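Students often ask why we bother encoding 3D structure as a string. The short answer is that it lets us treat folding as translation between two languages. Here is a chain of 413 residues written in the first language.
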Amino acid sequence: MPDGPSLWRDRNFTVFWASQTLSVAGDSFALIAVPLLVLHVTGSVAQMGLLTGVASAASVVAGIFAGVLVDRLDRRRLLIWCDVARMALYGVVPVAWAFGPKIWLLYVVLPLSEAIGMVFQVAYVTAVRGLVDADRITEANGRLSATAAAAGIGGPLLAGVVAGWFGPTAAIAINAASFGVSALGVLLIRLRRQPAPSAEEADEAARGPWHELLAGARFLWRQPVLRALTVLLSFFIFLTLGLTDVLIYHLKHDLGQSDGAVGVVLAAAGLGTVAGSLLVGPVRRRMGFGASWIGAIAVAGLAIMGLGVSTGVPVAGVTAAAYLACVSVAGICSMSLRQQVTPDHLLGRVTSAFWMTHYALGPAGAAVLTWGAQHHGVEVVCLLAGAACLLIAVAAFFTPIRQQNPELSAATG
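And here it is in the second language, the structure alphabet:
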């Protein structure tokens, strides 16, 4: 059992936890509002996928530099400035839209916001280590993920209602305000002081910026489990990044549902993320890392196939929930393992290198998935994507991912 006081009594973690939960609830408004805004103006799911792809590409590019920024700058200040910048960017959209639709503006705001969001997310991962003791990291990750998912349930529901009553731009304005809440929460906490640079780190910095940029990638490549995870998850994101757009298109185009119904389905699906976050701890303890991760990817593939053949809102919601539960289990397992085996001075760059590689194929995948859904139908696309996810799970059996406790072998290796 972990030593020390409970996380419930940790003021720093509690403030961070509460503010990030509210921020995630706000983020879910943009998740609904931006695709609806594009769909209302253009009527094209391909346009939705293109915007998703461009924004994801900006995130990948930012990932090249995010790790170095996080490992070299004050992480708390960096988190605050990222939130302030995103608040300003999203705040521009409802103001500009008041004078008429401007799709081009979304191609400016979303890529910039996603790039800044990549820096924030890398810093966020390192902040957890700066908030809690090492033996509390898994508990902290699970709690942050579970409550963020719970906020994500109410968020899409409210977003659908707000978008239906007041328009998608009102939902985007709420998202902008949520970044202000997040910035305030980070302002009120204190992270543990980062250790002074070691001789190895000083030598690393002296070799130049490119050496620093590649340090995270080199660490990922030297760790057999992290290397295999990075490769397989890159293919997984290619197959799944555009699924939210496809689901919204399926509900609106194929099933003829309202904006409010879209919010209800995504809110119900969010229950899957909550369930996965709450179950990942006991599942990993009982089954081990390998079985947990591989099983989650396999079931996710089956859920995607089920989504493709769904003919009603209830089935779409259940299959989406099953998919998100499995993504949550696999994602928390993967993130916790990286935090467990990566030295603190490299954690930002390793996280950045992982996400940059992980999302590299995502933009193309989102464009292909949504284009396929529009031209060949949601059923065909989901059946093919789900079958490919099953192949990823099979491939993982032949890699070090299958180990029960890879963090132990990494610590002694």
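Translate back mentally: The chain has a mean pLDDT of 80. Keep this in mind for the problem set.
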